[in-house]
Amino acid sequence: MFKVANWMIVSRSQLLIDLLDCRWPQEFLVKLAKAQPGNMAKLLDQQTNSLVLFDLSTIDLQQAYQLQRVIEREHSEIRTVFLNFPKQVDAKFLIHPSTSVGVFYTDTTLADISHGLNEILKGRSAIPQDLHQSMLNIDNEDDTDQLTIREREVLQALLSGSTNLDIANMLFVSESTIKTHLYRAFRKIGVSSRGQAIAWAQTHMHEVRV
């Protein structure tokens, strides 16, 4: 007898949820739970899931990062997949080597997503090669547990009340680059929000001041 797996889709799009609910339960022999970003953590505590899929077309990247951190900390046995992953924005900070097993760009067809999910069910990953290499690089950086000079600069700027756009203008880079530096720094110092990063910097910044 086949065992039914429990997956969860986190999305604000009822249309996408209905579409996937028509296809995936039969195709992959899964029970598909639906969650909004605000109630994902509560639902994960109430039921056992093996896979959580984030719809990035309806979830802010910062919120997706925070939700991914919840899974890393409290449900490390769960694997995560990102649907509608943006190509134009640097969102590699979302991908974590120990939990992330699938990334599908916004132009990926449902057929290609299905193929990738079949690979994941076989114990493989479905992450594009360019992102996979970047993920390895980020993992190597995090292994040192040391903030880079640029990450220190960005944390220092947070203390002065600067916005991401302010910091980007000061450092002559794009706002998305600043977000990437921030979230890499978040991982290294063990926080999941801007407020927590500021509180950490207020206590520790003398240790990391440039």
From TrEMBL:
Keyword field contains Protein biosynthesis: no
Pfam family name, one: GerE
Entry annotated with the keyword Transcription: yes
PROSITE patterns referenced in this protein's UniProt entry, alphabetically: HTH_LUXR_1, HTH_LUXR_2
Keywords: DNA-binding, Transcription, Transcription regulation
One Gene Ontology biological process: regulation of DNA-templated transcription
HTH luxR-type domain span: 140-205
Top-level taxonomic group: Bacteria
SUPFAM superfamilies: C-terminal effector domain of the bipartite response regulators (SSF46894)
Name of the featured protein: DNA-binding response regulator
